[in-house]
Amino acid sequence: MMAMSLRDGQLAIRQIPHPTPSSGQILVRTLACAICASDHHYMDHPEIAASDRSRMRVLAPESDVVMGHEFCGEIVEYGPDTKKEWPIGSRITATPALFTDGELRIIGMAPDAPGAFGEYFLVSEGFARPLPETIPPENLSLIDAIAVGWYYTGLGTEDPAAVPLVVGLGAIGLSAVVALHQRGVPHIVAADFSDSRRALAQSLGADTVVDPAIESPFAAWRRVAWGTDEDIVDRIRLAGLPKCVVYECSGAEGVLADVIEQCAIGTRILTAGGPAEDVIPTDVAHLKGVNLQFGGGPDPSDWFEMCDLVASGQVDTGPLVGEVVGFDGLVDAFERARSSAAPPRIVFRPDAG
């Protein structure tokens, strides 16, 4: 089959063996697959896969690894020991994890778990869900991305009085905005240097958007949450004032440290971005009583819940799709997607011209 594979650190469109479904697996034909920053991290930081003791990611530089874990496809063939719940040709997606030879892999991050930047890929039947024919496949491919925001906002809205600040408005930051709006959060502050991304966040439900080049996002947050620009540090005066929940989604080195330095006392930070390595001021975090959580999601329950919301039309992922490319433009698009000037999501469709 034709696929964009990673081999010896290089991406190229290659002919590679057609995957064959084994026990509990479904062979799926790719309809759409979005380019995610996690694909870049897997390619750029092989040390992460090498140190993954769970073996969900596998470092295999001499093998063809087909990335792509945000996908929509159609059923081609069932492997043995499957329930065959949906007819051949049905549209499906799945959580991006594959049971293979008794191990669990992240789809697109191991040679034996090919992703959807190829003509065909594999999913575990138990993780699959049917999708409607009425929604464009490129929109459906963003279910995994939007589920990340759903997961983090489930944690961050435990205090109903807290006011959120979303830092970084790529696909994951925008997914947090969408999820906060869907959950009925009344005040959403969002920050990004990009005019277009701030405008998109506003259209998706953020009522206050900030350009950090012009104003501190935390000053804007204080006006919304506290009604003042003043950075209140007196814990007695802070009693009864709304807490801050920061969704750090930038992925840029130094941003998390800046959030810790500028945030209010008692802030909860949920970091979905972050580079492979960073330095943070733990002394400041300690003095402020910052609650910091790294990654960890989405949980399956959040993923399936968001899948249902998108499939039913209650959540529209279409505004996050900025560009659709075919095989001819896929390698170039993968590189362009690294830029903050790129659309929130570039989506691959094999049938795109």
UniProtKB/TrEMBL annotation:
- Can you tell me where the transmembrane regions are? none
Q: Which SUPFAM superfamilies match?
A: GroES-like (SSF50129), NAD(P)-binding Rossmann-fold domains (SSF51735)
Domain Alcohol dehydrogenase-like C-terminal as annotated: residue spans = 171-311
Q: Which key words are in the record?
A: Oxidoreductase
Leader sequence segment: none
The domain of life for this entry's organism is Bacteria
Quote one Gene Ontology molecular function term: oxidoreductase activity
Q: Which InterPro entries match?
A: ADH-like_C, ADH-like_N, GroES-like_sf, NAD(P)-bd_dom_sf
Q: Which residues form the Alcohol dehydrogenase-like N-terminal domain?
A: 23-132
- Report what the protein is called: Putative zinc-containing alcohol dehydrogenase
This chain's source organism reads: Gordonia rhizosphera NBRC 16068
Q: What is the lineage of its organism?
A: Bacteria, Bacillati, Actinomycetota, Actinomycetes, Mycobacteriales
